[in-house]
Amino acid sequence: MNNFWQEFKEPAFSLAPMEDVTDTVFREIVMGMAAPGKLHMVFTEFTSVEGMNHPVGRERVSERLIVNDSERALLKKLNIKIVAQIWGRDPEIYHNIAKYITENYDFDGIDINMGCPVKKVFKIGACSALIGEPERAKEIILATKEATHLPVSVKTRTGIKEHITENWIANLLEVDPAAIILHGRTQRMQSEGDANWNEIAKAVQLKNGLKPHIPIHGNGDVFSYKQGLERIKQTGVNGVMVGRGIFQNPWFFNPEKEEISMEDRIAKLLDHTRLFEQTWSPDKNFNILKRFYKIYLNSFPGAAKMRADLMEVKSYEDVYQYFNS
């Protein structure tokens, strides 16, 4: 098994898996803006093992695992790892799908989502609900590991209603995941309140005593590269995963670039639109793009008006014309 998690020399930074956000297009755009050596890993959107296991569902769900040729070339060039993130609740189906992904795709690792707090997912006993079913959680990890030679990591939270960090992390460590990515919030907190990095530090201390070779990466409220480095120093995590921080600054992984001009921002927005159109038109809804426009159009005079105008556009053509007029 080639366990890339063990190979990072410096603090490792990754872009978090996010629903309707981290498709092949956005990953490529973010990587294209990153400074060499500042971004180490990207993740797919959450992919349902139940959906992948269904002959009809598979076609739709497997869109989440698409990697464009241009993204693949960039991954290679920058030596960035790409990990498929999966979710569900049935160990046997995890086994089938981990095997299927390993045989049919070219990912560097598989990550199990035990962290998504969304209520409808929680209700069916998947993702963060598994924190309340430690035995099933371990079965899922073992079943997935058995089906693949790829490293299997787990992304999770500190508890459901309250932090139970030490008990929960000790439970996961028993089955030797390749890495644990810990978001410093409970399920109940969703994305409210502050991420608790003291809980993440507790997890690091615990694993240093039990399984020091297993890396722990922290996640939650990291809004600049510098702040990520501070978190690493403060807690001893092996790396940091960035989620919403990328919305505040898509140039997150290029910390030297502090001033981003209006021209740069608009150019990136247009690159993103063109690549999205080439990749997804007509299958994906054009309006998905609008959530990205907000992240490019800020910090310059007139940005608010541009954002408002673009919320009204109806097509790719409208966007190109708006900036050409």
Can you walk through the features of this model?
This protein is α/β, with parallel strands linked by helices. 44% of the residues lie in helices and 12% in strands. It has helices spanning 24-33, 49-52, 57-61, 69-78, 91-104, 119-123, 134-146, 165-173, 197-210, 225-235, 245-248, 262-280, 290-296, 303-311, 316-324; strands spanning 12-15, 41-43, 47-48, 81-87, 109-114, 152-157, 180-183, 216-219, 239-242. The chain has an 8-stranded parallel beta barrel with strand order 1-2-4-5-6-7-8-9, surrounded by 5 helices. α1 (24-33) runs parallel beside α4 (69-78). The longest helix is centred in the C-terminal third of the chain and has 19 residues, at 262-280. The protein is globular, with a radius of gyration of 20 Å.
Cα-atom Rg, whole angstroms?
Answer: 20 Å
What is the count of helical runs?
Answer: 15
Arrangement of strands in the largest sheet: 1-2-4-5-6-7-8-9
What share of residues are in beta strands?
5-15%
Features of the shown structure:
alpha/beta, 9 strands, 44% helix, 325 residues, globular
